[in-house]
Write a structure and sequence with these properties.
Length: about 70
């Protein structure tokens, strides 16, 4: 049971960090007029691909999720 709680804790922390980074990028860089109009494959806005990749890169490079070892 403790292992499941640890996995849920790390997953939740990862998703919150991803959401905050994505939102900051969308509010700041995503409002540039030429940048927000680019579409890839006529479906996906280009900014979503860039923001997802950069958020994942920042999280994996600079954020360390600590899972305490329980006895």
């Amino acid at each position: 049971m403790n292992r499941i709680l640890d996995i849920l804790s790390v997953t939740g922390s990862f998703l919150i960090a991803f959401g905050i980074l994505f939102l900051i990028q969308d509010i700041s860089i995503g409002q540039i007029p030429g940048f927000k109009d680019l579409i890839v494959f006529k479906i996906i806005p280009f900014k979503y691909l860039v923001f997802t990749a950069s958020s994942l890169l920042i999280i994996l490079k600079f954020i360390d999720f600590y899972v305490p070892k329980r006895k």
